[in-house]
Amino acid sequence: MTDIFGQTPTQLELFFILYGVTGAVPLIAALYLLLRRGNAIAPDITPPLRLRCWAASLLAVTSLSHVWWLLFLICSREIYSVGYVLVVVVDGVTLLTTIAGTLLSMLQDRRRPIWPALVAIIPFAAICGVFIVHPSDQFKQIAIAYIMLLYLIFTTYMVFAVRRYGQWLNENYADLENKKVWLSQVVALGCMLFFILYLLVANLVLIYFMHFVELVLCGLLLWRVETLPQLDSKDAPDSLTLNVSRESEETSRTPSDRATEEPASTLPSAGEAMDDGAVGAVVANIDLAQTEQLLAERCVATQLYLQHDLTLQQLAYTIGTNRFYLSQYFSRQGITYNIYINNLRINHFISRCQEATAAGQPVIAQHLARESGYRSYSTFSLAFKQRTGQSVTAWMHDTDTKMP
After folding, report:
1. Residues β-bridged to residue 311
2. DSSP codes, 353-392
3. Greatest CA span in the chain, whole angstroms?
């Protein structure tokens, strides 16, 4: 921060208008997340409650930060005074902790604790406390070096955590629209670095620019929170809307069908833990042919793969097996659940496209993509190119030229 009172009256008025707006907008967004039960941005999506709470805390702390910095500017304005150091400490502890909590809450593969981030910031507060008693550039440099070290450690951790989260998504979900968070993490970590520089560098231009960035970041955060669906790979079977009725299967199942499902019934449920020996036994005893037959009968033949947001847990329940067992089956095949479902959908698209072309009917790729189970054409286009090595347009052109 720097002294802004040396500006002209017009510049000063513009500064406080911008300062007031950037203080009020996060507060309004925080109240929206805390008090509104519905989702105004994406009504059909239910975001994670934990993420909503952490994001609201971050936005509220951001708004309060404007209050105590304003009090400092009015009462003291002396850089590196006791008041300045206290405000920096409060900002560092509250903002960095809530930023970490918000970013970690976006990763839903497992619940990650926030207390390590809070504990890690304590030495920074202690160094600032020593600086108050013994003002010295040496302690200032130590504080800057420590906060940058924390940022590097946290960024490294988030890189691996986001990568693991992406693997978890591919192993459990067929549709990844609005579920990936790597871009949000990159933007947030970049703004987090910018915030650190904002605390440590006394530059008026940077302060003005940071306020504009703050408004943009507030909007992006609110959008990300409200468009990120609540994910749980242990979905309750009775909440499914499946193409195959479980009740009708029970009445039509033959004794041989029941016999083939016996191994799966001995496996733990989706929420139960397994020791290393049990995991090894399950992997060793996977009947690839049996599982492949069940998938062919209850997923491929019924075209269950066309259902939007079909999860691994739902598919496992439909074929009468266990989520862990089915995941290991795909692993043994060298693919993920996401690849398996997307291959079926791409094959369906190719088949429908060839049928329409042979019948002399017009082919609209966007319509066939939706019919093949995709809500987003861009997602379909990417999956198609990964599967065939060609873009949709190039493949359809080749298909047209080969047809008599």
Report:
1. 173
2. HHHHHHTT----HHHHHHHTT-S-HHHHHHHHHHHHSS-H
3. 88
Cα-Cα end-to-end distance for the chain: 73
Q: Which of 340, 312, 314 is nearest to 326 (CA)?
A: 312
Token duo for residue 268: 């733990």
Give the position of tokens 């420590």.
146
Q: How far does CA 245 lie from the centroid of its chain? A: 32
Q: For residue 5, how far is the Cα from the chain centroid?
A: 42
Cα R_g (the chain), whole angstroms: 27
Cα–Cα distance measured from residue 90 to residue 82, given in angstroms and rounded to the nearest whole number: 12
Q: pTM of the entire structure?
A: 0.78
Q: What is the pLDDT of residues 202-221, one digit of tens each?
A: 566 677 777 788 888 889 89
CA distance 59 to 350: 47
Length of the chain measured in residues: 404
Q: Is residue 158 within 8 Å of residue 185, measured between CB atoms?
A: yes
Chain centre distance of CA 391: 27
Rounded CA-CA distance 147/71 in Å is 25
Burial class of 309 by CB neighbour count within 10 A (0 to 12, 13 to 18, 19+): middle
Q: How far apart are CA 239 and CA 314, in angstroms?
A: 9
Q: How many Å apart are CA 122 and CA 130, to the nearest integer?
A: 13
Task: Quote the CA–CA distance of 237 and 267 in Å, as a whole number.
Answer: 17
E strands along 56-144, which residues? none
pLDDT tens figures, 288-339: 888 899 999 999 999 999 998 899 999 999 998 888 889 999 999 899 999 9
Distance CA 378, CA 359 (A): 27
Report pLDDT digits (tens) over 1-41. Answer: 445 555 667 767 777 788 889 899 999 999 999 998 888 89
The dihedral sign for the CA sequence 378, 384, 386, 392: negative
Could you identify the residue written with the tokens 């047809």? 403
